[in-house]
Structures are given as structure tokens and as C-alpha cells.
## 1
Amino acid sequence: MRGEAGWTAPATVAAVEVNQHARFTVRLNLKTNVSGCRDADTFYVDYGRAGSELMYETAADALQKRLKVQVYVTGGCDLNGYSAISAIRLLP
């Protein structure tokens, strides 16, 4: 499944979850997603992806401190309708 690539709207992090599928997921407080994937607010990063550790730490820090972030969706959608991301940035 393919969607569009680009930055999401600014949002707070609702959850960061590690799972057994060699990835972690980030859920944002969003109503729409630029990617067009079925799930509008859940994103994933594979552990083996370059920068995945930094993305996890950034998302966890934003969750704890209630900071707004944007994620860059790649256009990839998984079977659950989650969007693949390649970057997370904190907003002032």
C-alpha cells in the first residue's frame, strides 16, 4: 500500500509503544494524516532503520514533556494502515 510523503501537522504524542514486530509505533493526537494511510494517527519505525533510536528517544521525550512534534511520513502503509516515518522533529 502506498500513500503520500510529507510532514504531518504539529501534534502532541499520545503513545510510544515497542512491539515484537521489530518496530515501534508512535500515536499522535491527529485527526488527519498527509499519507492517506487508513489509520490517521499511528506511525511506525523499523528498528533497523538508520536513526530509529534517536526517533524513539525524541518521541518518548515529547510524550513525557507534552511537547508538539511533526513526523515525516514516507508514503509506506503497513497492513494495519499505519504510516511509515523517517524523521521526527520537536517543535518549539
## 2
Amino acid sequence: MPYLKIVTNERLDDVSLQELLKNSSAFAAKLLGKPEKWMMVEINHGRPMIFDANTQPTAFVELKSIGLAQEMCAHLSQSLCTFLEGELGIPPDRIYIEFWDINGKMFGWNGGTF
């Protein structure tokens, strides 16, 4: 049930948005070692955002997954920042990432929980 949410002030055209969705899904699933079948990605682009007192390109990212160990977060942060810099041109020092380890019994799907 991995979930990746990217909020950015960068504006994307429809083709770029669809490409970023697909690339993000494949990248995050591989990064987490989870089947892409379970990967969900949300991208909110063109959002009004300010970071470090300016409106240059920035992003806030949430990554949620069952079994997301604290020891993985530094590697995940580096990998996600590198990915977003390549995809959107956002420098890593303008990206915040929030990690969530989800208890499967507290996450619903298909009328049940994991």
C-alpha cells in the first residue's frame, strides 16, 4: 500500500504530469522493494508555495508504507531528492520529505485492512 504524494509549485502540462506519475510510481515501488501494483501516487502541481522566503521551485513529499523502517529514511531521502531534481529540476535543498510507517491494520483497502 505504498503512497507517494508530491506537492510542488512547478506547473506541468498534461503530458508531463502523466509522465511524472508513471515515472514516480515505478521509481518509488522499486525504491521500496514493493510491487508497483500496490503503489499509489498523487501529484499536486502549480500550488502556491514559499520556502526560504522565496517562490523558486520547491516540493513537499509524503511517503507512506507498511514496514517503512526509520533506518531506511536517509537513503530514501537522498534517492527521492535525486529523482525529483532529475524530473522537475528542483534542488534537493528545496525539498522536504515526510516519512510514515503505516500499521497495516490501520490502513483499509477493498473492504478490509492490510
## 3
Amino acid sequence: MVRWDQPGVPHRGWICVNVIDLKEENGEDADYESCGMCGQEKIRYVHIMTHTKFDGDVRAGCICAGKMSNDYHGEKS
């Protein structure tokens, strides 16, 4: 599994090429996945992320995908 803390893994500039809703694809009894970037368990919406400086793709959850693509809008205080 790719993680933020591994050397050579870009933190920004990723592109989301697809989003998979595991329940829509596999039904109500679908198994959840773990985020390929932070390890958070039980993600339903899997974002397929690619980067020009990384070989392969990463299957990430919503929050990590937003941070990876510079498109994260957190709550305003």
C-alpha cells in the first residue's frame, strides 16, 4: 500500500480518473476498502488517482483524494 510517509510519494498534483461507489457496483452487501494513501478503513467511494511522477495509481478515499488533487474544501471555522 502506498502511504504519505513513504519517500518519493507526491503529496499534491494527483488527478482523479474515476470514482467507484462500491455499493452501487457490488450491491448493499459490498465490502468496503481501505484508503491506499492513509490506510483509513471502510471507504465506500473509491477515487482512482494518478500522478505523472508516480508509477501506477492509488485507490483513495474522499478526503485523501481531495488533498492529493488540491481540491479539498474543509469546514470553515
